[in-house]
């Protein structure tokens, strides 16, 4: 992780310090969420189509702000993990939020690869590119040995992203939030 100045592909500096960069890919920059991301994040979280496959449904502005603050400096209990603003490298546009989340499933500590790209940019390969970049970061920088995706049945687009990142179906799982499919990969 490095601090750099923010600009379009680093070329056009705006004179402010760049956010904490976690992952960069050919077209994306994944960085810590910042308070100024709230409106863009809320646009994702209040949209029923975006949240269709999330067991907790849409979120209010207050709930979105709480999540943003929770992940602003990484996950509070695991600061190397968290949900990260996913931005387009060439424009700086907020595309979504992706990252790594810790879970305890069946008594086992797991790390979930999570991704959400705004619907206006679906089918451009951003979720798959972010997922592959996060997998490389998890393996090379964090030295994790395994990743999972928790996917609601019927979410074929998320299954496709998980498979493009190198994951395969492992099993079904049911908890207090309902049923999900666990896709996994060894790193």
Task: Please explain how this structure is put together.
The protein has helices at 38-45, 61-71, 126-140, 156-164, and strands spanning 5-8, 12-17, 21-24, 28-32, 82-88, 94-105, 108-117, 146-151, 168-175, 178-186. Helix 1 crosses helix 2 and helix 3 (126-140) crosses helix 4. The protein has a five-stranded antiparallel beta sheet, with helices on both faces. Strands 8-10-9 form a three-stranded antiparallel beta sheet. It is α+β, with helices and mostly antiparallel strands and 187 residues long. Helices cover 23% and strands 38% of the residues. A hairpin with a 3-residue loop joins strand 1 and strand 2 (12-17). The protein has four helices and ten strands.
Structural shape: globular
Low-confidence stretches: 1-18
Note the gap between the termini.
20 Å
CATH superfamily: Gcn5-related N-acetyltransferase (GNAT)
Helix content: 10-25%
List the secondary-structure elements in sequence, H or E. Answer: EEEEHHEEEHEHEE
Largest sheet: 5 strands, antiparallel
């Amino acid at each position: 992780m490095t601090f750099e100045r923010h600009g379009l592909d680093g070329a056009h500096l705006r004179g402010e310090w760049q956010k904490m960069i976690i992952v960069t890919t050919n077209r994306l920059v994944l960085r810590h969420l910042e308070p100024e991301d709230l409106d863009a994040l809320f646009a994702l979280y209040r949209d029923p189509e975006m949240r269709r496959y999330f067991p907790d449904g849409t979120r209010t502005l207050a709930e979105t702000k709480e999540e943003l603050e929770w992940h602003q400096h990484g996950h509070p209990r695991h600061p190397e993990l968290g949900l990260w603003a996913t931005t387009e490298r060439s424009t700086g546009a907020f595309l979504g939020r992706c990252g790594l989340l810790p879970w305890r499933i069946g008594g086992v500590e797991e790390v979930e690869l999570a991704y959400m790209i705004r619907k206006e940019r679906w089918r451009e390969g951003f979720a798959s590119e972010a997922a592959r970049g996060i997998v490389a970061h998890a393996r090379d920088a964090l030295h994790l040995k395994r990743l999972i995706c928790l996917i609601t049945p019927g979410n074929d687009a998320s299954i496709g992203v998980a498979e493009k990142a190198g994951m395969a179906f492992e099993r079904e799982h049911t908890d207090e939030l309902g049923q999900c499919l666990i896709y996994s990969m060894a790193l």
